[in-house]
Specification:
Layout: E1 3-4, E2 10-14, E3 17-25, E4 33-34, E5 49-53, E6 60-66, E7 70-76, E8 85-90, H1 94-100, E9 108-118, E10 121-129, E11 132-141, E12 145-152, E13 156-164, E14 174-182, E15 187-192, E16 197-202, E17 211-217, E18 224-235, H2 240-251, E19 253-256, E20 263-268, E21 274-280, E22 286-295, E23 298-301, E24 308-316, E25 319-327
Keywords: Signal
Protein name: T9SS C-terminal target domain-containing protein
Pfam family, one: Por_Secre_tail
Length: about 325
């Protein structure tokens, strides 16, 4: 059942305060068949969903029965591989109105959904700002097999959370995706619980989200992508299990020597890839940032640092690790 909450809002209590469900969609109240028979992106269909696809594509977004789940949204094609894509989002103004009517102080936006894929496909879900993707997570099962996180801030980062082979890619199973946007801290978080994949990103240029989207492309005949349980929630703070995921990443890193004089070696136990290391002093002031080429072990020159205590923010493909360094 779909719930767009504008005047009457559904609340639930968390350990941080009152969370506010803005949208909850499981497709069970819909008629089976096309989510929207108009694929030009101009007219809203069931549940205010807009559908758009490649001009010559035959890919469809259909409400179909699923054993144990009621109805789900299924994407398939009978057409060619290269031209297949379908993008769905809410009708203009729906999500903006929900967000603008949230309870004051609920400045963390949580977007979650479940996704299933088999065959050749690219399946995405995320937030839009204007006409561009702002935050999204992407499953890619094609010539490259990987799961990526995409964050647009002052620039664009497109980071591989994990690479697979055709034999190891997690096909044929449902995955829950959780994406958080913390407006106060200017951070994005990506989490796939059953795959234990996590990433945190800084957002330097805040943009107001105005829609959510689901996107399927690269479909081949016989491939299927399904979505279910789409939910949008306004929270007063980022949940503790997300914040603790950073701590889990941090625990897997080792630095030596520490205390250090000139060079610090940074290693980890699970071959996580280091993208950059930022050094902060004890007051939280950012001092230096050094980029690395996705290396599992790096060396950081700290010769120019004064004696004292520093915090190293180690950005990796699995999230942000924070470690304390003492400079002699």
């Amino acid at each position: 059942m779909k719930k767009n909450i504008l005047l009457i809002t559904c609340f639930f209590i968390t350990q941080f305060g009152i969370a506010q469900v803005l949208l909850n969609e499981d497709f069970n109240s819909y008629a089976s068949g096309h989510l929207n028979t108009n694929y030009t992106g101009t007219t809203a269909g069931q549940g205010n969903w807009i559908t758009e696809r490649h001009a010559n594509a035959s890919a469809t977004a259909m409400v179909t029965p699923e054993t144990g789940k009621g109805y789900v949204l299924s994407f398939t094609t009978t057409g060619t591989f290269s031209n297949e894509y379908v993008n769905i989002k809410q009708n203009t103004g729906v999500i903006s109105a929900l967000w603008n009517n949230r309870t004051a102080g609920n400045n963390v936006l949580k977007f979650e959904y479940e996704v299933f894929g088999t065959g050749f496909f690219i399946a995405e879900g995320g937030l839009l700002s204007g006409i561009g993707n702002f935050i999204n997570l992407r499953f890619i099962s094609s010539s490259d097999y990987r799961i990526e996180a995409y964050t647009q801030s002052s620039g664009i980062t497109n980071v591989i959370l994990k690479s697979y082979t055709s034999a190891t890619f997690p096909n044929n199973t449902w995955h829950k995706v959780e994406i958080f946007f913390d407006y106060n801290a200017k951070k994005a978080y990506y989490y796939i619980p059953n795959l234990n994949l996590f990433r945190a990103d800084n957002i330097l240029s805040i943009k107001l989200q105005d829609n959510i989207f689901l996107y399927v492309s690269g479909l081949k005949i016989g491939s299927v992508v399904k979505y279910d349980n789409i939910k949008l929630t306004a929270l007063p703070s980022v949940p503790s299990y997300i914040l603790s995921a950073n701590e889990i990443v941090s625990a897997k890193f080792n630095m030596y020597p520490n205390p250090a004089t000139n060079m610090v070696n940074i290693t980890n136990s699970e071959n996580m890839l280091v993208e950059q290391v930022t050094v902060y002093d004890s007051t939280g002031k950012q001092l230096t940032t050094q980029s690395f080429n996705n290396q599992t072990e790096v060396q950081l020159n700290v010769e120019d640092l004064a004696s004292g205590t520093y915090m190293l923010h180690i950005q990796t493909n699995a999230g942000l690790a924070v470690k304390k360094l003492v400079k002699k």
